[in-house]
Amino acid sequence: MSEPVSALNGASFGGYCDVTEIGLRGMVTLRGDLSAAAFKKVIEAETGLTVPGQRKIVHGKVVSLAWMSPDELLLLVSYRDAAATAARLADSLNHQHAMAVDVSDARASFRIEGSACREVLAKLAPVDLYPEAFGHGDIRRTRLAQVAGAIWMPDEASFEVVCFRSVARYVFDLLSEAARHGGQVGYPVET
Amino acid sequence: MLLITCPNCGVAAEETELHAGGEAHITRFGPEASENDFEDYLFRRENPRGVHFERWRHANGCGKWFHAARCTATLEVFGTYSAQTTEPPREILETIRAKRPAWTWRDLK
Q1: Nearest Cα to A119, choosing from A182, A191, A178?
Q2: In A10-140, alpha helices (H)
Q3: CA atoms of A43 and A28, how far apart (whole Å)
Q4: How far is A57 from chain B (nearest CA, A)?
Q5: Domain segments of chain B as ranges
Q6: Residue B62 and residue A141: Cβ atoms within 8 Å?
Q7: pLDDT at A190 over 90
Q8: Do A69 and B60 touch (CB under 8 A)?
Q9: CATH superfamily assigned to domain B3-99
Q10: pLDDT at B105 over 80
Q11: Domains defined for chain A, CATH in brackets
């Protein structure tokens, strides 16, 4: 069987922040009634995490679980485990109006690291990224220039971005351009 | 700039994150309907200078549809509400009546 490769094969760029394509990552989309106890029970038993509230992401040792919309969650696992996790969840959700689909190969993900990482994203997305408005534990689906993406902060000095695989090069170029040396604008402004 | 709060995910989304879906609360008339009803359903739209009810989709966000009541002249948003309804909720109408006493829109006033 052919070797799986990520969209940009781990491309990276060094600027005032470092931009790296994360490489292969397992992603399982879960849809169902997020308020239903039966649905929550299946998700919590599989992941060991509590179903996150509106626009929140929760992190475990190896998996993360993100709120994507009122009826959708995104489960981040290792690439190797994605297919089996999706199959197991689909099986457990069999009797509910819900689904679990392995979407790992449809996505690309990036990491932006550096103390000024907020401004790299603030240049591209119509989102308030001041620390009071957005921080660790929050996730935001938005647009990055012309394409859809989701962003969150694993810690105070980095962002992770997911987008569709078909626009991986576009998003990488955007992020690199925004993170280029000499392009710093001093966001957020100290008050 | 138009800022509309999506009732599905709570984000005060900027206009470019949203997609406009045309007039709200259009009653669908299907193949068995009279020609006049069908014509109204297909073509007749309000084009007010003032209070308007619209459908919007949070396209670059949670992906869900919702309704918004806003003023086309000032861009003031009176409120947003669920897409799963055939008429504006009472609170929204009260808000509009308080702010624009002379207002009318189709059969509403």
Answers
A1: A178
A2: 37-47, 79-92, 117-122
A3: 11
A4: 14
A5: 3-99
A6: yes
A7: no
A8: no
A9: Folate-binding superfamily (3.30.2270.10)
A10: yes
A11: 12-178 (3.30.1360.120)
Which helix H or strand E contains B13, and what residues bound it?
strand B12-14
* Shortest Cα distance, chain B CAs vs residue A64, angstroms: 19
Residues A35-86: pLDDT tens digits? 999 999 999 999 999 999 999 999 999 999 999 999 999 999 999 999 999 9
B36 in A contact zone (CB under 8 Å)? no
The radius of gyration computed from the CA coordinates of chain B, to the nearest angstrom, equals: 14
Structure tokens at B84: 């799963």
Rounded CA separation B109/B95 (Å): 12
Closest CA–CA distance from residue B91 to any residue of chain A (Å): 23
**Which residues lie below 8 Å from residue B91, measured CB to CB, with a gap of 6+?**
B79
pLDDT band at residue B42 under the 50/70/90 scheme: very high
Q: B99 vs A2, A191, B1, B47, B50, CA distance in Å?
A: 65, 36, 21, 20, 11
Q: What is the pLDDT of residue A191?
A: 65
Angular region, A128: left φ>0, alpha ψ -120 to 50, beta rest: beta
Residue A139 burial (C-beta neighbours within 10 Å; 0-12, 13-18, 19+): buried
Token pair of A45, please? 């038993």
Q: How far is CA A47 from CA A150, A151, A187, B21, B55, in A?
A: 21, 21, 36, 37, 37
Any CB–CB contact under 8 A between B16 and chain A? yes
What is chain A's Cα-based Rg? 17
Residue B15 per-residue DSSP state? G
Which segments of chain A are extended strands (E)?
A: 12-14, 18-21, 26-31, 57-59, 64-69, 72-77, 99-102, 107-113, 139-144, 147-155, 158-164
